[in-house]
Amino acid sequence: MINIIQDNINEYIQIIKNRANTVQSDVSIVVEKILKDIKVNGDNAVLNYTKKFDSQNITNLKVSKEEIKNAYTKVDDEFVNALKLAKENIKSYHKKQVQNSYITTKNEIVMGQVIRGLETVGIYVPGGTAAYPSSVLMNAIPASVAKVDKLVMVTPPLEDGSINANILVAADIAGVDEIYKVGGAQAVAALAYGTESIPKVDKIVGPGNIYVATAKKMVFGNVDIDMIAGPSEILIISDKNGNEKYIAADLMSQAEHDILASSILVTTSMDLAKKVKSELKNQVQYLSRKEIIEKSLNNFGAIIVVENIDEAIKIANIIAPEHLELMINEPFIYLNEIKNAGSIFLGYYSPEPLGDYFAGPNHVLPTSGTAKFFSPLSVDDFIKKSSYLYYSKNALNKVKEPIIKLADTEGLTAHANSIKVRFDL
Questions:
Q1: What is the pLDDT of residues 143-165, one digit of tens each?
Q2: Is 323 known to sit in a ligand binding site?
Q3: Region for residue 39 given its phi and psi (left: phi exceeds 0; alpha: psi -120 to 50; beta: otherwise)
Q4: pLDDT at site 323
Q5: What's the rounded Cα separation, in Å, for the pair 294 and 284?
Q6: Cα dihedral sign for 145, 148, 149, 155?
Q7: Is residue 1 over pLDDT 90?
Q8: Around 326, how many Cα atoms within 13 Å sit in the side-chain half-sphere?
Q9: Which pLDDT does position 20 carry in this prediction?
């Protein structure tokens, strides 16, 4: 089920870091062809790919208001209420991230910065069996808080040509403006270049399969993107006081995502390590995604036994996991020692699914060690900044000499001349 490691820890870490590279080498060739086709042929190409990969029953790409209204009849009130409660938590958390424009004035000089939301953002949402309404909330709500003008969502249709009702309801609650029935690399291309029906956006966010991730990478520069998401991962740090049932359950909560997912326990107790391994075998028998969980744990799961918590934290900072749980009695003591992690869960009653669905912090997190330099999705991802300045003639006159000196030193005489002509120098 899962290996207990005391030696060769560095070798295991390399396996974890390289697991996202186990993809088909010809993906980029396929994606590049799709991108070019969409760019040239627009809606016709989008429809052709949608019929080829998802549904033959597509005639209109845009989801109608009637379809959204009808989606509410297919979900229960408890689900709707859960979405609304999660929305309020997510919105409240992200409101604290809002930055304000500013202005400074002194001695006939005015300088400042204007912060604006992006005009149009595209949200990619996986469909079919991997339909996650929570991802709709996590991507759309920070954009809304940032005052993005238009939110456009793309998601692949089901075989009958409809969109998953849970996704539609979540999008409506989150404030998405337009929804289109298209997925895969073709959806990314449509958002990046625009078609007759689908507007070109300024930024594309949201998770997807390897074709979606590759397409996002290829269109970057033409549009902005959030990040290239790799397989999911969790690292739990616990001492001898850890609860093996909680730990096993949390490890499997990530393992069920993908056979490439990585679930790691780093503990100071060999006794706890053995109990967790046994508990994994017990609990997995009753879970719907048992086969995926077992493959994930067999290939990329591990229980690492170390001497002390400091050593455990050192390993965590090297791996830089997407999710990190500090399942110890006084987790806040060690919080500042965690340098690299997408999101940190503190104590025995802050399991990773709390963050995935409900608490408020974003669940779109850096993976594959990129938490060393990337951050969770936030309001900052949906804004742009413009600086501005004003100098009076008198103010410019006081600083003309150092500007001319700097320009001449760089050999940019036209820059220097721009200052000189204003003072007949």
A1: 999 999 999 999 999 999 999 99
A2: yes
A3: alpha
A4: 97
A5: 8
A6: negative
A7: no
A8: 21
A9: 64
User: Rg of the chain over CA atoms, in angstroms?
Assistant: 25
Helix, strand, or coil here: 291? helix
User: Which residue in 233, 279, 322, 325 is the catalytic one?
Assistant: 322
Q: Which of 341, 347, 349, 363 is nearest to 86 (CA)?
A: 363
Distance CA 47, CA 52 (A): 8
The one catalytic residue among 244, 256, 323, 352? 323
Predicted pLDDT of residue 228: 83
Domains detected in the chain: 27-225 (3.40.50.1980), 230-372 (3.40.50.1980)
User: pTM for this one?
Assistant: 0.92
Flag whether 124 is marked binding. yes
Beta strands at 262-267 and 203-205: parallel, antiparallel or unpaired:
unpaired
Q: In angstroms, what CA-CA distances link 133 with 2, 165, 263? A: 31, 9, 23
pLDDT at 128: 63
Residues 303 and 277 sit within 8 Å (Cβ to Cβ):
yes
- 113 assigned binding-site residue: no
* Runs of H (alpha helix) within 54-132: 65-71, 77-95
Mean pLDDT of 99-113: 96
Task: Mark whether 307 is an active-site residue.
Answer: no
How much is the pLDDT for 129? 58
- Rounded to an integer, what distance in angstroms lies between the CA atom of residue 145 and that of residue 352? 24
| Residue 308 in this model has a pLDDT that exceeds 80 | yes
Q: What is residue 72's DSSP assignment?
A: G
10 Å Cβ neighbour count for 220? 13
| Amino acid type, 44 | N
> For residues 326 and 332, what is the distance between their CA atoms, to the nearest angstrom?
9
Task: Measure the CA angle with vertex 142, ends 138 and 147; round to 5°.
Answer: 145
Percent composition of the chain: helix, strand, coil (DSSP 3-state, to 5): 50, 15, 35
Cβ neighbourhood burial of 254 (10 Å; 0-12, 13-18, 19+) = buried
Helices (H) and strands (E) in the chain, counts: 15, 14
363 assigned ligand-binding residue: no
322 is catalytic: yes
